[in-house]
Each structure stands twice: as C-alpha cells, then as structure tokens.
Design goal:
By secondary structure, the chain is an alpha/beta fold. The chain is built from five helices and five strands, in the order αβαββαβαβα. The chain has a five-stranded mixed β-sheet, with helices on both faces. It is globular, with a radius of gyration of 16 Å.
C-alpha cells in the first residue's frame, strides 16, 4: 500500500489527489496490511478500515503494529468467520490498539462472503471514509456517541465496541487520560462483553 501511494506521488495523478487525506482498507491478509500501513511508517494515513483481518505471524504480521496505529481505525469482525476467527485476530487488534478504534462485529457473515462487493461491510466502510476523510456530517452519527446515540450501535445484527473515541491517547475511551479503562466498553450490551475486553467499568443497556 505504501509503495502504491509513493508511486502516485510521482505520477501524473499527483495533482489530482489529496495526500493529506489517504485511507487504507483491506480484507483478511489485506486487513493485516492495512494495520501495517496504519502505523504511518510508510506514508501518512488519515484513517483505516480492516475487514476480518488475519494478523497471525505465520504470514509475516508483526503484532507490534497493532499498538502502533496513528489514525482512526474501523475494525470489522464476524461471529460467523470460521476461517479467521475473531478471538485470535480482530479481538486481539482491538485489545492491543490504544488509538481510536470503532470495532463493529456482525452476526453470521463468513470470511469469504465479503469478497467482491464487501457484502454487509460495504455501507459501513463507505460511511466511515466519508466521515473520516471528508467530514461528512450525515455519516458521523453512525460512529459518534455512546450506545444510546451511535447509529451503528443501535443497528440490529451488529455488536459495537469503541475505544479512545475522544482521542486523548490513553486507550480507555473515557476522556480523562488516566487509562483506567472505564470507557472501553461504553457501547457493550452486556457486562460479559466488558469482562471479555478487560474493562474495569462498564455501561450497558
């Protein structure tokens, strides 16, 4: 991904593109590549979207990348992915990442269902990049707020977790900068969800 952007900067397309607002997205190993790109070590990235990412070291993923993100991440998992299980992939990325992560888990979608047109992820990815890269005000409500106000949080078939939305960098999401974890699971729907993600406090409905 970094090499592609570097090439574009020296191509005839350079004058047509805004390199301050570059997004990176990928599925499976491409999701792992998106996480690598999100470290900003290759080119500056404004936002990322990782679909059902495969992040095991077997194929060269460096687990340190998970905690080195420099831009907001839309992380997508699925309870129906039996090929790249979220418990050892997307859940791990969410736990490791101390930057702003919007983690959306859909019910039932298989790993290969999203190939081609992104299937159930197409709409949320489009809205995410409109929000992050263009400041689109109609897309923002899908991702902002708590479990009472976030649009995706109230969407049937999705389980949403939000970390460090306020951007204070401590990774806990409660906005006070102390890293105590009170806000990690502000969009969980049960106490067990918060326990699974290691929160010391939770709000749920």
């Amino acid at each position: 991904m970094g090499a592609c952007i570097t090439w574009l900067k020296s191509s005839s397309y350079e004058s047509l593109l805004n390199f301050n607002m570059v997004g990176a997205a990928g599925h499976s190993q491409g999701g792992g590549g998106t996480i690598a790109t999100g470290t900003g070590k290759y080119v500056p990235i404004a936002a990322t979207a990782a679909m059902l990412p495969y992040v095991r070291s077997m194929f060269g993923h460096n687990s340190e990348w998970n905690s080195q993100q420099t831009s907001p991440m839309l992380l997508m998992g699925s309870t129906g992915d039996m090929f790249v299980r979220k418990s050892s992939n997307s859940d791990v990325v969410y736990a490791d990442n101390n930057h702003y992560v919007f983690y959306a888990v859909v019910d039932g979608t298989g790993h290969f269902d999203v190939m081609g047109d992104f299937d159930v992820f197409r709409g949320i990815i489009t809205a995410w990049f409109l929000y992050q890269l263009t400041g689109d005000t109609s897309s923002a409500p899908l991702f902002t707020g708590t479990s009472d106000t976030c649009g995706m949080c109230k969407t049937s078939g999705w389980d949403v977790h939000i970390k460090d939305q306020n951007g204070d960098g401590d990774g806990d999401g409660d906005g006070d900068g102390d890293g105590d974890g009170d806000g990690d699971c502000m969009s969980c729907t049960s106490s067990s969800c918060c326990q699974a993600f290691g929160c010391t406090g939770y709000m749920y409905s």
